[in-house]
# Entry
Amino acid sequence: MSNFTIRSEELAQLLLEADANAAIKWSNQQIDDGISPIDFFNQVFTPAMSSIGDRFSRLEIFLPELMDSAETAKEVSEQVVQIRLNASNPDLNTSRGKVVLCSVKGDLHDIGKKMVNLMLQVNGFEVIDLGIDVPPREVIHKAKEVGADIIGLSSLMTTSMPYMKETIELRDGFGMKGKVMIIVGGAPITPEYSREIGADAFGRDAVEGVQKCLELMGVVT
Amino acid sequence: MRMRHRSRLVEVLDRAENGPIMDEADFERGVVTPTIKRLVKQYSIKFDRQNIVPNNDELADRLFQAGLDFAVEVGLFCQSTSRRMLWSRQELIDGLRFCPSEAILGAGNDAVTVLARRPEDTRRITVVGGAYGVPVPEHLFVPVMYSYAREPVVDVLENATLETVYGRPIKADSPWEVLGGWREAELSFQVLSRANRSGMCLGCVETSPTALAEISASSWGGFRPTDWHHVATISEFKTNYDNLEKVVHTARIGGALETYYNPIFGGYVGGAEGVALALTAAPILLNQANLAHTFGTRPDHPFLHCDTTPEILWALSFAFQALSRNSNLLISSLAGPAGGPGTKTMLYELAAYTIATSVSGQSMIEASMSAGGRIPRHISGLEARLCGEVAHAVSGMSRGQANELVQQLIPHYEPDLKTNPIGKPFEEVYNVDKVEPIPEWQGMYDEVYNELVKMGVPLGRNVL
# Structure
């Protein structure tokens, strides 16, 4: 096992313990001890986050632990990673992409979408979660406002699926096709339906959703 | 039907207006999760793979107390008012004392009486068959639903979800939702007419994500008070005005009301232990909030999309024993196999599920949300036949024997759960004109039926 692997596992453990101060202190120490900020980000921080996502995908940890870990990781990112990276290279962008996420109008299911949100975060995406029951116009407006790369639409109800189509039509109508990708998912959504309404990708669950978002961003995994 | 508790309707609504204000995220993460974790530890609740059907009354009673504690401490959260709806321990206990211990569903010769049951009970279980919200096109709605209605073992019919209405998409919270609800009613009555079961109870309104379709289509000319009107719970432990509007409407039309709570395995309530506790607490709370006759559940695995994993089966069996030993609540569960029609995987899943839940005191078995309920048209009436037959066969069976059967069945399907065994759509496993299983599907059913008999499931007995 390489030094980086050992360290990423140590960081994953600290994130799971949700002790932000300890994780921040440990991360600063690693960089002070000689790991370059970019190596820390690529070889320690990112694999640690992926490891936590993998554990959730195997349900070795549950949603509350995933949420705690993601929040702790966010603090490490803001208070250590970004500061150290900016100091060495101010132009470096570590985000794998910006995702606007929601359950579409008429759908009040939140937990599956929240799982997708957290899995995206631990895999390096910036996520703007608009919540549940979100009308198409609001989604498009927010995507424009924040310069989203991807819009993620969730629906667990057949009666909300038409709002996915409407959102895609609005995106295309506003000339955003090709600029903002749309991924859809949720219990009744099929790859066929996804293609039929013009979505760019379909995710069967949180794990596949992240995989597809990485592919949309051109990240080879 | 004894609905003495519906006198509390206004008092319920008051709680949604006057309870303590709280942020929704704080309720989920600051109240639900820590309370579950603390009570699981405090009451030493522990998943036991060797006893998927537990056989320990003391443990079951302990789980009931944990569920009652949770109900008192957590209550429900009303999204529409950002308020918690709380009840005292005594109020919850009184609610349980006066809850309906039986309910009549349907009318005339087609009426069935749902009975409170205990673990290992010999009293008759009620069998609900239907496509449970699985999307079907309009032209297939009648044949699909008739495939359930034609089964003598099915007592109550549960509708599919229409994909479209007159060829147009059904949009939530729009005129299309209202029209969809009415179309569902019209087509349902065609099904009952074809089956010569005009008084048969219908689970409804399936196409009602908001209160619009329920309130509209459950009126004159549409669904009847003798039908089974559904009110959901928003996971975890949340409600809203739409749900409460359905409660008010159903109470005022004198309708039979079913409420359900579907926890997410691995979500805010955690793993098997948390799911068991949540499943115990939810009906206690929903008895207060939704004034229901019956209390259903369909826990969900977030990656396998089923409720037949050993952990979830254990949670269901354990919670149902806790509830049925300590209350007269009419509890039920919806089988949600990962497998779909045309697979033996699904039949093994359904058998294990039905055995584990039915010997644990549930009043109704609901069958089924095949292929996880996710795939359009992947459902058929044969699933309900199997669940109904097995549920009656295990009437009076000991929990020990049931556990042995479930332990035998799990290896038959568990390795397949990750393979997405969705099977085939209805039109490929049934002759659509005759509405009969094709020989291949019927043959598969017969093979599994005979295997179950060899395992010791006493299928084919006279039904009480």
Observations:
- The first helix of chain B runs from residue 9 to 18.
